[in-house]
């Protein structure tokens, strides 16, 4: 539910999660437990002149291109500083991520990304071929025939 506009950002409240969110051009930029904290984060972003960071996200043996749209520091369970980022992929899907699976989108890394994309296409084709072969297998072992084959019945 939209609360208000603040310095070019839209502030929304989500009652189900009891969270306030700041959005810019439809992208979720930050979140907090109260409106004041969201506004303070917007002020910090504007003062810092935040620039989106082009990155490659590694996940599930694949990669996707996107951008870090905001950074949030918080304190972890054991008092350590935890950095989370909002990531927007090329399909405009947004997610909050840890830094561990993000890589700077350098020319070298983009080359590796393209190789991974190509290999995943090959993997999909190989999986289809394997499934075609799998359905050709005959004489499945079943509950009815396993004992008979073992010489028990």
Question: Would you summarize the structure shown here?
Answer:
32% of the residues lie in helices and 40% in strands. By secondary structure, it is of the alpha+beta class. Strand 2 and strand 3 form a beta hairpin.
What can you tell me about this protein's structure?
The chain is built from three helices and nine strands. It is of the alpha+beta class and 153 residues long. It has two domains: 1-49; 51-139, SH3 type barrels. The strands form two sheets. Strands 8-7-6-5-9 form a five-stranded antiparallel β-sheet. The protein starts with a strand and ends with a helix.
User: How large is the share of residues in beta strands?
Assistant: 35-45%
At the first level of CATH, the class of the largest domain is Mainly Beta
Domains counted in the coordinates: how many? 2
Strand arrangement in the largest pleated sheet: 8-7-6-5-9
Structural class of the helices, strands and pairings? Answer: alpha+beta
Extended strand count: 9
The CATH topology of the largest domain is what? SH3 type barrels
Q: State the helical fraction.
A: 25-40%
- What's the rounded overall pLDDT mean? 90
CATH-defined architecture of the largest domain:
Roll
End-to-end separation in angstroms reads 68 Å
What is the succession of H and E elements? EEEEHEEEEEHH
Number of helical stretches of at least 4 residues:
3
**Which ranges are low-confidence, i.e. pLDDT below 50, for 5 or more consecutive residues?**
none
Provide the gyration radius in Å.
24 Å
Sketch the major β-sheet.
Answer: 5 strands, antiparallel
What coarse outline follows from CA principal-axis ratios? elongated
